[in-house]
Task: structure prediction
Amino acid sequence: MEIRPELTLQEKLHILADAAKYDVACTSSGVDRRGREGYLGNSVAAGICHSFASDGRCISLLKILLTNHCVYDCKYCLNRSSNDTLRTAFTPREVCELTVEFYKRNYIEGLFLSSGVWKTPAYTMERICEALYLLRKEYRFNGYIHVKAIPGAPDELLAAAGYLADRMSVNLELPTRESLGKLAPNKTQKAILRPMRMVSDTIAEHRLAIGKSAQMERSASTRRLGGGIFAGVDRRIGEQTEQGLLQEERQTTADRERFMLPAELRRRDLQRPFVPAGQSTQMIIGATPETDYHLLKTTQHLYQSYDLKRVFFSAYVPLNEDSALPAIGTPPPLLREHRLYQADWLLRFYGFQADELLSEERPDFNELLDPKCDWALRHLELFPVEVNTADYAVILRVPGVGPKSALRIVQARRHGRLDFPHLKKMGVVLKRAHYFITCSGRMMYHTPIEERYIARQLIGTNEKENWQIRHQNEGMFRQMSLFEDFRMGA
Result:
């Protein structure tokens, strides 16, 4: 498995952009850094204009791997060491030239840089830091950069990357130690959670140093999240060992002797905030048998304990033949991925807890319904809700009612009684909400409050949308190519 350095830059781009398409990067910048004289680009809060491919992947950033060479042999990964794949790598300067040239042509507004593990985590992270440093200092690029941290790399390199990038992410990959050991034998939760903890602690320290709250700016409902299957995991992972981990640490110590990072990065005193857009992570779904309940409990704990901005879910696309994985040709669980994203939204902005949405007795969502409707049908004893008298928090939990429309309801009813036409004008989605609300004691239709009946009606309403989500890729997962001219689907 040798790297082919003689390939042209365009050939490298075809290989390494395609290899990066399974990394999720569909986020807004999350920072407010305006343009500066003598620099290229900016990262104002709405400055990253996202486009989405037919499979839902974000393609607004130049999304590439530094290399698709990897010493690890994760069973689910296309770039695993045992695959007979053409391997190549960018030099740090090539990453800079591509980013700047594509930016000048208005193809992109930022960079998403990830990598396979090249030789060692320390060596890989050093090359990434070199690319980011050149991009910021020599090429004077002021735009958005999202970089993947390499678990196992020294803290000094992770810190250097954090002062140069806007967002960092450490992929959890799989939610349990057992699944990780089964499909990714070279990785441990210790190696993954350690840099995640380091990033979250350094973000908190930086915010305190500049006089702000150590907590990231997230919704109040997210800050209340607690519990989870990882409770006490930091204590337990100390008891775990990985074969070869001590040897790798000794190699890392030896590598430090030849690190040539600029002094300003070693001092960590750049005049830049540390990871201003926060950190995120990604979990693969469908490759292992975890339930939705398990995934949501893990997600909830990550938000609370590691102060993450986002947890992303990636429907597993069968790429490798292995008895431990779904067979090649198995459809990716796109609808399940969609439902988990909706449930994640409920955790972050609607005040729900994972234990409310699901339970050990009913551990999976009904994929044909959005999670809020699924929850409401499991708790019909709470409905119907009278919109003219109910509290804001109660109205917010009605399917079809969002934070803005709930606030409008509470404000508008001070001036008079509300009816269904009023609710429609306020943005309430009545095709879902009308089963669960009353106006002045009356329902919109004479609907029986019965789970099976309402479920059939809601499934019929969502049938077209569900079909589109399941068939949005039609067997062809691809991100936008910068060399082809094709129109994105609406």
